[in-house]
């Protein structure tokens, strides 16, 4: 469907059919999602006598249609959201009264919002960059290629929202005013190390001071003690009070130099050219590995769990993944592990009970020979 658009800010008009105009009222400074479009009070529907009238259409001079329902498919909804967010970006007022914190996890972003003092802005990156293609993620072509790979292989939740969240996050980063300091939180795991480098790449034209906060190293230094040892591999595992304390402890850190920023940017450019779809953190380095890297470990764990049970019963995927994280030294995306379990099912190594539509809907066991 070809959607014609016209702006009468804060209203935006969409000609969705030959003579049907949807009018959306922008009432927020925040970027919206597909789910936000379901708010019926933000919409008005109008009917034109002829399509040509759209160029001069003004909803103030027309009467809305009452009691009629119209349908838009998911692709059209994404296009509508994109158009609305473009107008929000053009007209939003940027905050300049506090630092910006960026972290490679939406859950960690929530903890930072709760823990850090105001004023501040917190941006959570809504993706897991240790898996999947990385090429040209600052462009629509690369984002679409990555999205298609994820949808084909990974049981991602709310797949229609994924490209919208990704685009919105890039907009938020683009919108950061030049006069505020930027703090990038990351840890010693593949996802956060890669995301930190991508963020530095995205910020390459910004003149802001940029500070790095290695949360896992600071946690080990300031919170872990001889009496209380807890293995923390990523920022999202930390509670809000601890994040606040780590920020206070790190306030005297120096900003990245131009040389350091350039080095990290080159790191990202090299990563973006790699072809592996699984990357791990090993011996202080990001390493690309074959996508079957965890397969043998998964099979051995299933065998061990079946021996512990003393029978050949099926094992819940949730229990298997929990065991994986307890035993494995590293942080691998839970959805990637589930993808490999499905691959082992399809390849004949495992039997399945249930429907693999989500992590919690099925069980597996070793296939009897």
How would you sum up this structure, described in words?
- Helix content is 38%, strand content 17%.
- It is of the alpha/beta class and 369 residues long.
- Strand 5, helix 2 (106-115) and strand 6 form a beta-alpha-beta unit.
- The N and C termini lie far apart (52 Å).
- The mean pLDDT is 90.
Please give the domain count.
Answer: 3
Q: Biggest sheet: strands side by side, in what order?
A: 1-2-3-4
The number of helical elements comes to 11
Look at the structure and give the mean pLDDT.
90
Low-confidence stretches: none
What structural class do the secondary elements suggest? Answer: alpha/beta
Shape: globular
Strand coverage percent? 15-25%
N→C terminal distance? 52 Å
Write the layout of secondary structure elements.
Elements: E1 4-8, E2 11-15, E3 20-25, E4 43-47, H1 74-91, E5 100-103, H2 106-115, E6 121-124, H3 140-153, H4 162-174, E7 182-186, H5 190-202, E8 210-214, H6 215-222, H7 240-249, H8 258-272, E9 278-282, E10 285-289, H9 295-309, E11 315-316, H10 317-327, H11 334-346, E12 350-354, E13 362-366
Parallel strand pairs: 5-6, 5-7, 7-8
Antiparallel strand pairs: 1-2, 2-3, 3-4, 9-10, 11-13, 12-13
């Amino acid at each position: 469907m070809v959607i014609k658009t016209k702006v009468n800010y804060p209203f935006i008009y969409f000609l969705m059919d030959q003579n049907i105009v949807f009018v959306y009222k922008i009432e927020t400074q925040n970027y919206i999602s597909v789910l936000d479009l379901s708010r019926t009070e933000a919409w008005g529907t109008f009917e034109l006598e002829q399509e040509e009238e759209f160029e001069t259409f003004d909803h103030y001079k027309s009467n809305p249609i009452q009691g009629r329902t119209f349908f838009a498919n998911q692709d059209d909804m994404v296009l509508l959201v994109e158009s609305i967010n473009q107008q929000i970006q053009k007209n939003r007022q940027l905050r300049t009264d506090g630092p910006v914190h960026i972290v490679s996890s939406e859950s960690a972003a929530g903890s930072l919002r709760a823990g850090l003092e105001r004023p501040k802005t917190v941006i959570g990156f809504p993706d897991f960059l240790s898996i999947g293609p990385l090429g040209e993620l600052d462009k629509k072509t690369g984002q679409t290629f990555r999205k298609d790979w994820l949808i084909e292989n990974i049981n991602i939740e709310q797949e229609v929202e994924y490209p919208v969240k990704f685009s919105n996050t890039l907009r938020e980063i683009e919108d950061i005013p030049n006069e505020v300091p930027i703090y990038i939180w990351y840890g010693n795991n593949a996802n956060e190390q890669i995301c930190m480098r991508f963020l530095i790449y995205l910020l390459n034209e910004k003149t802001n001071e940029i500070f790095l906060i290695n949360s896992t190293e600071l946690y080990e230094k300031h919170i872990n003690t001889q009496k209380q040892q807890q293995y923390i591999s990523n920022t999202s595992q930390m509670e809000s009070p601890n994040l606040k304390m780590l920020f206070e402890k790190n306030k005297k850190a120096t900003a990245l130099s131009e040389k350091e920023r350039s080095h990290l940017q080159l790191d990202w450019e090299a990563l973006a050219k790699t072809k592996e779809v699984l990357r791990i953190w090993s011996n202080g380095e990001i390493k690309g590995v074959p996508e079957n890297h965890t397969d043998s470990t998964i099979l051995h764990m299933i065998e061990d769990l079946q021996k512990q049970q003393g029978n050949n019963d099926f094992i819940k995927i949730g229990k298997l993944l929990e065991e994986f994280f307890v035993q494995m030294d590293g942080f691998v995306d839970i959805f990637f592990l589930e993808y490999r379990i499905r691959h082992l099912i399809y390849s004949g190594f495992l039997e399945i009970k249930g429907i693999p539509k989500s992590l919690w809907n099925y069980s597996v066991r070793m296939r009897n020979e």
